[in-house]
Amino acid sequence: MVAMENPHAHAPQGFIRKYIFSVDHKVIGIQYFFLALTAVFVGMFLSLLMRIHLLWPSVNLPIFGVIQPETYLTLLTMHGTIMVFFVLTTAPQGGFGNYFLPIQIGAPDMAFPVLNMLSFWTTFVAFVVIIAAFFVQGGAPLHGWTGYPPLSAIPSAGPGEGLGADLWITSIAIFCVASLMGALNFITTTLDLRAKGMTMMRMPLTVWSWFITAILGLLAFGVLLSAGILLLMDRNLGTSFYVPLVVVNGQIMGHKGGSPLLWQHLFWFFGHPEVYIAILPGMGVASQVLSTFSRKPIFGYRAMVYAMLSIGFFGFMVWGHHMFMSGMSPYSAFAFSLLTMCIGVPSAIKTFNWLGTMWKGRIRFQTPMLYAIGFVSLFVSGGLSGPFLAQPVLDIQLHDTYFVVGHFHLIMGVAAIFGMFAATYYWFPKMFGRMMNETWGRIHFFITLAGTYAIFMPMHYLGMAGGTRRYSDYREVKYLATLMPLHRFMTYAAIITIAAQFIFVINLFWSMFKGPKASDNPWEATTLEWTTATPPPHDNFGGVTPVVHNGPYEYGVPGAAKDYVMQTDPATVSTH
Amino acid sequence: MATYAPIDAIREGQTGRGGSTSTPAPPGGGDDGRGGDSGPNYGARLRRARLGLICGVATVTMVFVSLTSAYIVRQGLPTYDEPTSSYVRDWGGTDLPWRLLGINTLLLLASSVTIEFARRGLARQVALAPVKSIPGVSLGAESKFPWLGVTAILGFGFLIGQGLAWKELHLRGFFVNTNPSSSFVFLLTATHAVHLAGGIIALLWAGITAWLHRPVESRRIVVDITAWYWHFMAVLWIYVFALLGFAR
Q1: Which of B27, B35, B63 minimises the CB distance to A545?
Q2: What is the arithmetic mean of pLDDT over A476-495?
């Protein structure tokens, strides 16, 4: 450590500057975390209503009454949108990335702290706008989270497609702006604020994952923003970018010549990288936790970095695999198919390296480790169905069935959520200065793991049997009605799994105030956040600037006094 | 196999950041207005701001790349024509006020020149500041020409000119929903104008920093970033102008 006079050592004292409009990346990270926590409960509640409706379509629910088919589509749309944008994009990057990226590279804050604050509050406004869609005339939109026109482009196309849909698009546009500001900050911070000795190849894999995610966000969200503006213009200014000549409710609309496929191309050019925006931080956390709790260096550090870079690179070249059913040229489909399957290679490298990291390790089965293993398990389970969908001939059969729903929920949804759980249990002591309850953590893990498999694995069988997604009532379709027992099983599993999440929330808040005090390095980990006080001071390192001497995963080094060597340990670790 | 060697010999990397063997950068949270304006980390702050600008430029570029893609795709799309029972192109075309747009282009290019003068002038001031602080040393009178103000006026002029071009389009019967071509004309010019308006706000901020007597180094960072952004806006406008002109 190098002692330096720090002009920014003193934290602001006022409540507003300290906790509301704070420019401290740690406070902003926690703000993102709780915003995502709120959003995930909203999204989860919507999914619960959907599952209840599928089993009992005529039940009269308190407050909500009987859920109509169009309301079911609204629930589906808002569940997907809130989960993808305000949970899967917000928590891993905005939450944990904000809190730990500067500390892990030895910086006192993000490169542009005011911009960072602006980024959070813009995200918050986007969330308020999308929630407002529930309360306007006609309610929230029903066009699905992918917002395909012409349905999404014509206000009279259905309930919720009026002001509700305008708010939906506006919210996403605002979210894009917020994400772009965040991405700019992450990239600049990573490239420019690393402490002395923190070379790129000494960065923890979490930092690599946030960095690559930021690059993806920087290139992808601008495209979604453009697409959203065109959609707003079609809806409100009478243009025809996406809308062909259509008749709605017996009326010829004023549009002509537009192409819904244009939206699909623009949307999925963003949409597929978005999958990696959601999952890459989870990969980083899994690597961090697996190495720490296996007490072994990460297996193939450089391969892990290059694999993440490859995944990010290929992520921009495969959007067409979401459009195999759009009538694209078979040659294009072949190219998209081949490129999609290429992503299997770096993904397999990562999986192999995670297993290699655990192999013959002295594994500590504490809650963060359980969730990291759970992440790998879900990543493999959800990932293996990817090559099925990557082949046009199979996708034509499986498209718009529950097979797809099961696939993306396992890999993009739940695996990413497991990454967030691993991150929460792992970093909670550093963030709040106390330990979470281990027993309740394990109970939460086992119920959640079993529950998610019970919900999403049957969806694959459901899809293979021809079970279509987005239908609100299967009773009147004979071949679908026979699949109801599976739906019943999934709904019961969903109710139990959702109930188990309250264990997590109670554990979280109880531990914040009543949990046992945490030491500075309770997991005996090596990266920079564990060298500073718990919780970290305002400038992260209490007036000193760390100097990095070692890689991030030096565990079990022969000759060392302990079984781990901190990154700041002046003794060198050499590899022969 | 990894071994532990208890010696204090750091093998440093070759990169500028992180692996630097020079004195570590002092802690500071970036340009957050929490002090350190004229500190010794001025060069680092300028570099950081430029890096942020490159990211911002990448973002804006992606916005225009996607709009261009949409432009090209939409231009080639056929639509069903009921009277002739055939597919026809409905692109339409737009009768652009070329002379007015040409004048606007000249205004923007001129503003790019004036902001470059402002940027270089401030860079010179920063470079000479240590020399000027030596007692008895005089470097002669410095130019006080308000290049930033001139740039802002030219920028406003460009925006007003674009507004006049819109008015002229309306007089010629072209509105945002007249045909796909006119939709893109309004979309591209408006998107560019919004981004340029951001540049004018940055210019005003640069003026405010001068008025607040902030250290010359801080002003230089604001002006430097604004100038490069402004140049990018000029190049972007040339691109939009060319797209509208050549891909009609």
Answers
A1: B27
A2: 93
**Closest by alpha carbon to A179, among A104, A69, A270?**
A270
pLDDT, position B11: 39
Query: Does CATH number 3.90.870.40 belong to domain A31-246+253-258?
Result: no
Q: Stretch B227-238: mean pLDDT, rounded?
A: 97
| Helix, strand, or coil (residue A60) | strand
Alpha-carbon gap, residue B175 to B182, rounded angstroms: 6
Kindly list the residues from chain B whose CB atom is less than 8 angstroms away from the CB atom of residue A291.
none
Testing the interface with A: which of B63, B71, B181, B185 to mutate, by most A Cβ within 10 A?
B63
Tens of pLDDT, residue by residue over A226-258, are 999 999 999 999 999 999 988 888 888 888 899
At residue A573, the pLDDT reads 64
Q: Does B84 touch chain A (CB under 8 A)?
A: no
* Residue B36 pLDDT greater than 50, yes or no: no
Per-residue confidence (pLDDT) for residue B29, from 0 to 100: 36
Distance between CA atoms of A257 and B77, rounded to whole angstroms?
7
CB contact B58 to A (< 8 Å) = yes
Q: How far apart are CA B21 and CA B11, in angstroms?
A: 10
Q: How many CB atoms lie within 10 A of CB A41?
A: 16
Residue B35 in this model has a pLDDT that exceeds 60: no
- pLDDT tens by residue, A135-177: 999 999 999 999 999 999 999 999 999 999 999 999 999 999 9
Query: Does B85 contact A at CB distance below 8 Å?
Result: no
Residues 6+ apart with CB under 8 A from A227: A263, A266, A267, A270, B66
Q: Rounded mean pLDDT of chain A?
A: 94
Distance from the Cα of B218 to chain A's closest Cα (Å) equals 14
Contact A554 B2 (CB under 8 A): yes
Q: Which of residues 181-240 of B touch A (CB under 8 A)?
A: 183, 187, 191
Measured in whole angstroms, the distance separating CA A253 from the mean position of its chain's CA atoms is 38
Q: Does A245 touch chain B (CB under 8 A)?
A: yes
Domain ranges, ordered by start, for chain A: 31-246+253-258, 515-576
Q: How buried is B64 (Cβ within 10 angstroms: 0-12 exposed, 13-18 middle, 19+ buried)?
A: buried
Q: What per-residue confidence (pLDDT) applies to A554?
A: 96
pTM for the model: 0.93
Q: Is A573 on the interface with B (CB under 8 A)?
A: yes
- In the numeric block, the tokens 């010629």 are attached to B172
CB contact under 8 A, B59 and A565: no
Task: Encode chain B in three state secondary structure.
Answer: CEEEECCCCCCCCCCCCCCCCCCCCCCCCCCCCCCCCCCCCHHHHHHHHHHHHHHHHHHHHHHHHHHHHHHHHHHHCEEEECCCCEEEECCCCCCCCHHHHHHHHHHHHHHHHHHHHHHHHHHHHHHHHHHHCCCCCCCCCCCCCCHHHHHHHHHHHHHHHHHHHHHHHHHCCCCCCCCHHHHHHHHHHHHHHHHHHHHHHHHHHHHHHHHCCCCHHHHHHHHHHHHHHHHHHHHHHHHHHHHHHHCC
Per-residue model confidence (pLDDT) at position B24: 42
- Other C-beta atoms lying within 10 Å of the C-beta of residue A329: 9
* A545, A196 contact by CB (below 8 A): yes
Domains of chain B: 45-246 (1.20.120.80)
pLDDT tier at B210, thresholds 50, 70, 90: confident
